[in-house]
Design brief:
The protein is built from 44 helices and five strands. By secondary structure, the chain is mostly helical. Strands 1-2-3-5-4 form a five-stranded mixed sheet.
Length: 846
Amino acid sequence: MLVTFAVAAIGADLDEAQKLFLSGNYTQSVVAAKGRVAERPWSEDWQALLTESLLALGHYADALTSISNALDRGYPSPRIQWLAREVFLSNGRKQDADDMVDRIIQSAASGRVSDAASLVALGRAALLRGLDPKLVLDRMFSTAKKADPDSREAYLASGELALEKHDFALAAKTFQEGLKRLPDDPDLLHGLARAYEPNQQALMVQTLEAALKFNSNHIASLLLLADHAIDAEGYSDAAEFLDRIKQFNPLHPEAWAYRAVIATLQNKSKEAVAARTNATKFWPANPRVPHLIGLKLSQKYRFTEGAGLQREALKLDPDYLPAKAQLAQDLLRLGEEADGWQLADEVQKSDGYNVTANNLMSLHDAMRGFQILTNAHFNLRMTPHEGALYGSRALELLTLAREKLTANYGCALEKPTLVEVFTNQADFAVRTFAMPQNDGYLGVCFGNVITANSPGAYPGHPFNWEAMLWHEFCHVITLNLTRNKMPRWLSEGISVYEERQANPAWGEQLTPNYREMILSGELTPVGKLSAAFLMPPSAEHLQFAYYESSLIVQFIVERFGFPKLQAILHDLGEGAEINQTIAKHTVAMDELEKDFDAYAKGVAEKMGPGLDWEQPGLIGRKVARRARGEKLTPSPTQQVERAELSNFDWESWARAHSTNFYVMSRRAQELVEQKDWSGAKPILERLIELCPESVGAQSAYAMLAATHRALGETNSERTVLERLADRDDTATDAYVRLMELARDAQDWKAVALNARRYGAVNPLVPVGYRFLAEAAEKTGDARAAIEANRALLQLDPPDPAEVNCRLAGLLHGAGDPAARRHALLALEDAPRYRDALRLLLEINKQ
């Protein structure tokens, strides 16, 4: 009876000590564990708790003594041996760490693995020795959970394996399963946060905050928050998280590695060197340190430095696959493709389950069929089908962008730019992010390499590929000028600004929603604007971040002059900090933010100054958005909002606001739907007169054009559509109608203009090429007519004989011997085609 009571008391004592550790009271858990280890040196539970507590405090030498004592007593379990591996690595004893892995495997052979903790240790060791991850999961980690459903290590190991293999859904499910049994466990919460990191960063932050609420000293959570802050360019915030770690563990290697990252990004080379020295104090050959620093620099697009650090990591450990996989990606982004693909192949052969390598090598195989179009300054890689349709046009556009932007910014590019266009979104995402998920990016620039989605990658979601390529090439200029040392907001802001300079219809434009966001105080402070790209509340907020960034650039150019923008880029390339260089060439950041806020509000207020823009609160905003034909986004309070919306007396409110933009838009839309053209016309004309900036499928322009058409007012319809086409770079319906109207009026220049506009949005269908071919023939532009007819043949026209005959005539007129082939092709499809026969006879005669 006394013995039973004593055992129960010891168990309760251990539980309390473990709670101290899990809650971050590491010093107290060390004190408790030391006392019990002195009394019960055979107890692995107390030995493990003491060792883990010492590691958390950065007492690596003491942890080595503690685990060595545990190893010297009898037959240590695989659990203790796995912990010993971690301690040996922390002290730079890699060979001893590797020996522990071998001893764990041997333990399995001797049959000394039965409890859950030992099964987990065996599984982890087996993974290091190359055993199939699925076998490990099924036979070891899952068996451990069945043996002990409360084994936190089993959930942690299973979740970490899913994270390593990039199965984030399975990882989240695993950690959530563990949290049901072990709520508030900081390690499980941290694992769940990592599962959220790729696609749900707001949830990631919330989950990390929950972990820190239970354990304010949780190192892994603080490190992940520091990592997130660095991504958002919040370097002072990141330093605060690292300072919290330093208070109880001043020697943590990863914390010092992150400090080296921050110092490097802030051009503080001495601090960066000192931080790296501290990071490797106990393990000088730790490949994780240069790998982590290089990874974060590459995430800031500093791929040359990142690649150099991965090479350092591989010198320290040639088998360190994370460094080899990252180096492969860095080299591919630098355009060093031969070495990049070779490294990816080596990683795949070493680890068949490496998701990054598998994705890259599958992409490599898929790209074998791509063709390369080249000129002196570009290598354009795309599918042969799309290359035949608009490849030469893309090269012309890129060449024009290069001529204008290199001259504007004084940038001398030393080598050709590689541009890769992908029809498959997943292929683009793998080439860009090494994963098949794409968060809506149309294109990405790495410096001298551009990856882009084809116009066919987003069916039903048109975009202007010319504007996109211009935007991305502008990144080539600014990244080269700054040596990739510029904040994201400035990089994106300049590219969007330059889109609008090239074509007023390109780039983000002021919209009624953006007007409301500016005037309601939703501008992000300039110093924090890069973070707005990282975790936007909605897709519209992300686009607004692009618009706001471009507006800041516009403000700087208008207020201080374009040379000041050039000077800012030059100083950034020399390593200057952004706020300091802006202050040097403009005004201090706080003053700039204040002046910009006033400037942006001035721009917003100039939109529809003669209109009433009032909205009656939240419900009014939803009514207004419904009036503009927008789809309302579901929200947690949707039922309440629907009830309020149904009770809202719109008609009374509308009568009191007759000049309100939303009232007029909704009334016009109702009249158009009722086909009351005469009633709709004056409202729509007034809307366009007072707010010409508002475009889009539901804009007054489109409705007024439909109204004029219904009333037989063809000239007015064309005028309205031309105004819309000048402002909207994706108005394909307007372009088609303008082509029809211009053809009827024999205005072939306008036909060609709108055909090219159409092709800049959708070059994969025949309609634009048919109009362009006709316009080019009528105006005697043989080259354009030949290209258009060749494109039509790529698109399986209903009458290929006619197209081949027309193309043969054009080629014959240009003296091209290919004319005979196309005449024969026309006759192959239609043997009695008289025009083709006459043309063939003429060709043969000559």
